[in-house]
Amino acid sequence: MLVDVHTHVYLPRYASWLRSRSIAPRILVNEAGEERLLILENETSAGRPVGPSYWDRNAKISFMDQHGIDISVVSFANPWLDFLSPADAESLARDLNTDLEEYCATSPLLQSSTLKRLYGLGLLPLVPGISIPSVLAAVSQIAKAPHLRGLIMGTKGLGKGLDDDALDPVWKAIEENGLVVFLHPHYGVDSSAWGEKENGHVLPLALGFPFETTTAITRFILSGAFDRFPSLRILLAHSGGTLPQLSSRLASCIDHDPIVASRLKHDARFYLGKLWFDAVAYGPEELAFVSEIVSRSERYETGSSNTKALADRKQGSKRMLFGTDHPFFPPLSSSEKWKSVVENLEAIDAVDGWGKEEREGVRAGNALTFFNIQ
Amino acid sequence: MLVDVHTHVYLPRYASWLRSRSIAPRILVNEAGEERLLILENETSAGRPVGPSYWDRNAKISFMDQHGIDISVVSFANPWLDFLSPADAESLARDLNTDLEEYCATSPLLQSSTLKRLYGLGLLPLVPGISIPSVLAAVSQIAKAPHLRGLIMGTKGLGKGLDDDALDPVWKAIEENGLVVFLHPHYGVDSSAWGEKENGHVLPLALGFPFETTTAITRFILSGAFDRFPSLRILLAHSGGTLPQLSSRLASCIDHDPIVASRLKHDARFYLGKLWFDAVAYGPEELAFVSEIVSRSERYETGSSNTKALADRKQGSKRMLFGTDHPFFPPLSSSEKWKSVVENLEAIDAVDGWGKEEREGVRAGNALTFFNIQ
């Protein structure tokens, strides 16, 4: 069985908004008469091709069938509602969450099962100036929608990031309702970092996205939010960006800085064991590493220094979940299986230390438990 | 035996320059009459304490003795000459390289050995507007200095980064002379990423530094420089930043981008096997991971998919080298051993899969070979 936890949709209502806009994010028609998606204002190219795979449910199901995916937990794609006024964000969040529940509720049943093939992650009207009750209303709407199991969130919060104390009532409501937060990047880092050479989308996608996710979750941890809301269930996009590789450095920097040295209840590395990670990293060593890092979290409670790579990998795999990032990363030539998907599946198969049980968990079982799909 | 390859010095001549300045980088005297180092103009605090450990050779040797370090390969500290005019950079580079050779040449002998206790990494006058012959003269000066074994370099190159074709003659000269390039961060990323909360230096140091190194070496690789200069020997600070964890994602993004998909001779992951990494990551799993990533490089030539974590770790350890980052990360309270150093030593001891041979290699042997100290 195979469950995809990282798969996006621009629902028709959202695509219409993008078509109506004259600045990014927008969908425009180029000189060849083709629709193109421009996500960021400073994108150097003329945007990316966009079509039915972005909004047509049949295209999603067809992609799933082609790659043997049984169930997808579909989330809205960046930049969500970030660019809207509070009033527009509030009403569009309500409508899109309703649309997504309908999209999932009317999806086909999984063969010989009562499960649907599509479940969803809604969104919140997180924009500067929104009232907290409006955000809480969206949390409540999602919690009541039978096929929505959480929400996808960018890194800006109410405009000041995820370490903003004003978000505490939102975290509390999400925690109380047992909803999953899927944390996903959009902005990268300041594009001056990428220099003047023409490198397509490689640098913002390969580096900027994971840098942004890493920064957001680090600021969240540093704010003590996990100490206040220890039952929050956060899934990090792209295998946690670079947080795993920087986690001991982060712990050391905290230890050596008088301003933050005694702020948190735990060593910074402890908090990585409270997170979930998609398995969208394209290589077996990367997946293996994340599973070790998750596993060692416990040692920062028990004081044990026992580090056994292969055993750690087995245990940590329980917090890793297969994903595709569909409809992004399509093959340069069409019709064959998507290389991006095949690579992630091959990576799961190739992790040294994972047996049949761990591979099946990462492919499906962990997601069914995490999203309470049964 | 223990060799420290990541240890910095602000030589007296350089400290004098910093004291003469009224904007960062500068050394100022605060209201309490203490000298403070302000490295970046937008640092939120009043800079960091600075003293003899930054410039006094006796303090360096004393630190080495305290931690059992036999030999240090000392490098200049950021921001090097980045802030100077071409004329000042050229003359200060010449003088500082002379000073550093003297600093090493007159250092004590290692007990019962003809080796000195200090070797050095010089610097180049890499600033916008400098002439390439001036840079080449500095390469030549370093190559002729008996105790200098390479140079430390920031990420700006001639102002446009390390993917600037204008640097090709510099790479060629460095390669031909067999000098090591120690690539080190200074600028981080745009500080707007860190938000409004007071977190001391944690975010720019723990995240910004590794992000910068990762971006610089990725741009270097993407420019095809390793295809043109395959014998360049580059050592990455802080265990390569986040390049290892992002390397399969990078390879995938390159594969999926028509602008760069066919530019390089090799899969992006191949190039990680051409690099060296300091072991300044503060955790055993991080070191283990880097050694696996180095090792898998070969598989992208042979097409083998055999991944055996513990064997890979042994092989990859040969490109990893102990470091301290002295005089940075001093303990919050003084006199005891530096926690930052102890953690890096404990991490080397705790890597699952490294035996006595690998640990001794990372502690000393790899560095002696890499820097040709014999």
Properties at a glance:
alpha/beta; TIM Barrel; 14 helices; 11 strands; 3-stranded antiparallel sheet; 374 residues; lyase (chains A, B); 8-stranded parallel sheet; homodimer; 41% helix; Amidohydrolase-related domain-containing protein (chains A, B)
Question: How many beta-strand segments of chain A?
Answer: 11
CATH homologous superfamily annotation of chain A: Metal-dependent hydrolases
| Computed structural class of chain A | alpha/beta
Described by the principal axes of the CA atoms, the overall outline of chain A is: globular
H/E topology pattern of chain A: EHEEEHHEHEHEHEHHEHEHHHEHH
The pair of chains with the biggest contact is: A-B, 82 and 82 residues
What is the CATH level 1 assignment of chain A?
Alpha Beta
Beta fraction of chain A = 5-15%
Number of helical segments with 4 or more residues of chain A = 14
CATH topology of chain A: TIM Barrel
Lateral arrangement of strands in the main beta sheet of chain A: 1-5-6-7-8-9-10-11
Span of the ends, CA to CA of chain A: 13 Å
Count of structural domains of chain A: 1
- Second CATH tier, the architecture of chain A: Alpha-Beta Barrel
Oligomeric description of these chains: homodimer
GO cellular component, one term (chains A, B): cytosol
InterPro entries (chains A, B): ACMSD, Amidohydro-rel, Metal_Hydrolase
Organism (chains A, B): Lentinula raphanica
Family (chains A, B): Belongs to the metallo-dependent hydrolases superfamily.
